[in-house]
Specification:
Calcium-transporting ATPase, transmembrane domain; elongated; alpha+beta
Length: about 900
């Protein structure tokens, strides 16, 4: 469909799509949405429940189990066949539910991320979900936006897009509105922008010509969505864990076979089947699904706390973060940018009233209300502020929202407080050309034409003052004196020291024949005034900073603001000591560059010890991240602009702003903050630590039960006892103890001390040496208790003794789940009801266990005999020792450590 538009006139396209440069009406857009469908690409098709269930049988371990069933069938052990098949089926069922739940959680997270598009509806610019775009819509695409649909450009200024996802071209592509002739390849259609590409510079206005599957990328979407991502570091770590557990299971099974055959003299078929059963019960075939559930649960918890996970393994990585490099504006502050102070020539100081984004307020001088229309100096400043910005304020029901950069929106609001609207001004004064905000040069500029031609400039105070040689007084351009320049400098630094962002407003009259705006024209400026923009800290940030410090995490502030502004905010939120001097805790980019002139050593030391970095360019942000990583730090970095993307990608965890962040920043990051709030990062770190703890404890639980079973089996063989359990008993035991209890530990909530210690080492294994003493104590206790009960009931017959031993092993392992909730804290302090999933798993597993003793057909299948109440109570008392011994071990450990 798109090939029909690059060689047509705009007027023809409007006619063919029944649209205009004012956009569609909401009614017409809804009608087209019903006809064209949602503007989205197909996602990877989720496997049907049936296929997901059948997938559980695709395992070498299951094949071994089925081989054992076949062998039993050949030997005419039909009951064994039926029970093995039942165990295989139930194991597959549990795996299915775990994987299905994890997949459902991941899908839910994906729906939490909504990409918006700026579009004209009912002649007004609004933000709507990009999936609601329809052909004929008029969209605005600016630097940092993901292009939401295929569209033909109507207007373009310095627009460049990155189209590698579609064409493979890594270099930015310049865009324009010129009509193309002939058969032009897709990659050369310079007047078109394409869905899923990114605008990395400038802006453009375009008419949507194709959405969803009818876009260029939609034609190849099927092949894209089926590309399998590379296994993550976390996935490799869990595979390593599974391999280690499998090796333990193999060692146990081999030892069992060797002792049973060579020492005890069992028939080779009998001991082989028993050893295979031991192997199967010991191998953690459900571990990957359990790990996926743990991650998914952590991600869901994070989403509830406004941190949306785009890449699931990032959940675990957050738990090892040692440095958080955070932006100031909108993350540490409220992002309710409002101009509160104005400095005009002749030493005039004005204040501005108002609330947040509301375009209502008054101008005061010496306590008196000032009428901007009767003050030439103020009116000129407000005029420039209205024209030289891309910010827009819209009213959504009862609240005001901004479109575009919040700082530029603050300029638009300032002008509107004086009754100056950009659209009205542009009816008589044309914007011929403009330079979008450049993060390196730190200003934006527009070239306008009325009776004369002017360049209007708004930017960082130091940069503009350096380029200003004149000042506007009484409507006339006067050469700025040295003393006045010093006075302006000190006044501006006072604003910055009080925590305000300081911008300067200037202009430059240029020859009337000038048609193109270049950076060379942003010079020889006439300073019009200075603006102080307030953005108060978020109230919850101070507490979050203290939590980060308590968790051993270094917090670095990186900002494009003046150093004094950054230091003032840092003092207010508790990042630095209130008495700390700026030069000791903060460095500007220029100071960092001066260090680099003499080598890397001083620079690296500064990066490692400094908490505040001001006036940073994107390149310096990237270098800071790389330097921190060089010294072993695990860095989480926040960002919102397209220029932050390299550093976000380089960081161990890139965190994008969900509200003010660009699409490019969000797609580069592993985490998106739905509320742009620093406190949400700390909440995410907390959940990351909880996730890793739960993974460790789930794995420890599984390995403890398996080791205990192996030691018990080997011990009975060495001590000359009859086989304590049959192959079917081992398989059923594995199902009862591991099937529900392992996943239940994934739901363990915070223990309220996860943020009171330093981050764990990044390379730390899931299972460490510190758990070995507890593992051996619990495994030996389980073995001793089971053998004691087995020997005690052996005189009443092998069937009774096996029934008791089977019940004892199951109950030992079920009691042990309460130990595994924490390796340090008492379960009585945690509270039995704080993890209802563990409690539920305990009682359900208990019910399943007793069903094989008291339900006749199960009892017969496993060759058990009923136990009376006193026998059950006796077993419960003995097996509960694992809980009490675990409590004593934790108490001693807490005393020692």
């Amino acid at each position: 469909m798109t090939e029909l538009f690059y060689n047509r006139k705009i007027s023809e396209i409007f006619d063919s799509l029944s649209s205009s440069d004012e956009g569609l009406s909401e009614e017409e857009a809804q009608k087209r949405l019903r006809e064209a469908g949602f503007n989205k690409l197909p996602e990877v098709r989720r496997a049907s429940p049936i296929l997901l269930f059948l997938k559980q049988f695709k395992s070498a371990l299951i094949y071994v189990l089925l081989g054992a069933a076949l062998l039993s069938f050949v030997l005419r052990h039909l009951i064994d066949v039926y029970v093995i098949l039942a165990v295989v089926f139930l194991n597959a069922l549990i795996g299915f539910f775990e994987e299905y739940r994890a997949e459902a959680a991941i899908q839910k997270l994906k729906k939490s991320l909504v990409f918006y598009s700026k579009v004209w509806r009912n002649r007004e610019l609004v933000k709507i979900p990009a999936i609601e775009l329809v052909p004929g819509d008029i969209i605005l695409v600016e630097e940092g936006d993901r292009v939401p649909a295929d569209a033909r450009l109507i207007e373009a200024k310095n627009l460049e897009t990155e189209e590698a996802v579609l064409t493979g071209e890594s270099l930015p592509v310049e865009k324009n509105t010129k009509i193309l002739e002939g058969d032009v390849p897709l990659g050369d259609r310079s007047n078109m922008i394409w869905m899923s590409t990114a605008a990395i510079r400038g802006y453009g206005k375009a008419i949507v010509v194709a959405t969803g599957l009818k876009t260029a990328i939609g034609e190849i979407a099927e092949s894209i969505v089926h590309i399998k991502p590379k296994a993550s570091h976390f996935e490799e770590k869990t595979k390593e864990l599974a391999l280690g557990m499998a090796m333990i299971a193999v060692a146990g099974a081999v030892t069992t076979f060797l002792i049973g055959f060579f020492i005890r003299g069992f028939y080779i078929i009998d001991i082989f089947i028993f050893s295979v059963a031991s192997l199967i019960s010991g191998i953690p075939e459900g571990l990957p699904a359990v790990m996926a559930v743990v991650l998914a649960i952590g991600a869901i918890r994070m989403a509830k706390k406004r941190a949306i996970i785009r890449r699931l393994p990032a959940v675990e990585t957050l738990g090892v973060v040692t440095v958080i490099a955070t932006d100031k504006t909108g993350t540490l502050t409220q992002n309710s940018m409002m101009v509160e102070r104005i400095i005009l020539p002749r030493g005039r100081r004005l204040s501005v009233s108002g609330v947040g984004w509301e375009p209502n307020g008054f101008f005061y001088e010496n306590g008196e209300i000032l009428d901007p229309s009767k003050d030439d100096a103020l009116f000129e400043l407000l005029h420039i502020a209205a024209v030289c910005n891309k910010g827009r304020v819209i009213k959504n029901k009862d609240r005001f929202e901004v479109i575009g950069d919040p700082t530029e929106a603050a300029l638009a609001i300032l002008a509107e407080k004086a009754g100056l609207k950009k659209d009205t001004i542009l009816e008589s004064e044309n914007v011929i050309d403009e330079l979008p905000f450049d993060p390196n040069k730190k200003y934006r500029a527009v070239l306008t034409k009325h009776e004369k031609k002017f360049v209007y400039v708004v930017g960082a105070f130091e940069q503009i003052l350096e380029k200003s040689y004149f000042v506007l007084k009484g409507g006339e351009k006067k050469k700025i004196g040295h003393e006045e320049k010093i006075d302006l400098l000190y006044s501006s630094e006072d604003l910055a020291s009080s925590g305000m962002r300081v911008l300067a407003v200037a202009l430059n009259e240029v020859p009337f024949q000038t048609e193109e705006l270049t950076h060379d024209l942003v010079d020889n400026l006439t300073l019009v005034g200075v603006l102080g923009i307030a953005d108060p800290p978020r109230p919850e940030v101070k507490d979050a900073i203290q939590k980060a410090k308590g968790a051993g995490i270094k917090v670095i502030m990186k900002t494009g603001d003046h150093k004094n502004t950054a230091v003032a905010i840092a003092r207010e939120i508790g990042l630095i000591d209130p008495e700390e001097k700026s030069e000791k805790v903060a460095l500007s980019e220029n100071e960092l560059l001066d260090m680099l002139k003499f080598g890397e050593k001083d620079f690296e030391e500064a990066v490692r010890t400094t908490l505040i970095f001001a006036r940073l360019t994107p390149q310096m942000k990237l270098k800071i991240v790389e330097t921190l990583q060089k010294f072993g730090e695990v860095v989480a970095m926040t960002g919102d602009g397209v220029n932050d993307a390299p550093a976000l990608k380089k960081a161990d965890v890139g965190i994008a702003m969900g509200m003010i962040g660009t699409d490019v920043a969000r797609e580069t990051s592993a985490v998106v903050l739905a509320d742009d709030n620093f406190a949400s990062i700390i909440n995410a770190v907390l959940e990351g630590r909880i996730v890793f703890r739960n993974i460790k404890q789930t794995a420890f639980y599984l390995i403890t039960t398996n080791v205990a079973e192996d030691i018990t089996i080997v011990s009975t063989l060495l001590f000359g006892f009859p086989l304590i359990l049959t192959p079917l008993h081992l398989l059923w035991l594995n199902l009862v103890t591991d099937g529900l209890s392992g996943p239940a530990l994934a739901f363990e909530p915070t223990h309220n001390h996860e943020l009171t210690h330093a981050p764990r080492p990044q390379k730390e294994r899931i299972l460490t040496k510190e758990v070995l003493p507890f593992l051996l104590i619990i495994a030996v206790l389980m073995t001793a208790g089971t053998l004691f009960l087995f020997n005690n009931f052996l005189p009443e017959g092998i069937t009774k003794a096996r029934t008791v031993a089977f019940t004892a092993m199951a109950l030992f392992q079920l009691w042990n789940i309460f130990n595994m909730r924490s390796l340090k804290m008492s379960v009585f302090k945690l509270g039995f009801f704080t993890n209802k999933f563990v409690l539920g798993a305990f009682f359900i597993s208990l019910g399943i266990q007793f069903s094989v003793i008291y339900i006749p057909f199960l009892q017969k299948a496993l060759n058990f005999t009923p136990l009376n109440l006193s026998e059950i109570l006796f077993i419960l008392v003995i097996t509960s020792l694992v809980l009490w011994v675990g409590e004593v071990y934790k108490l001693i450990r807490r005393k020692i450590i």
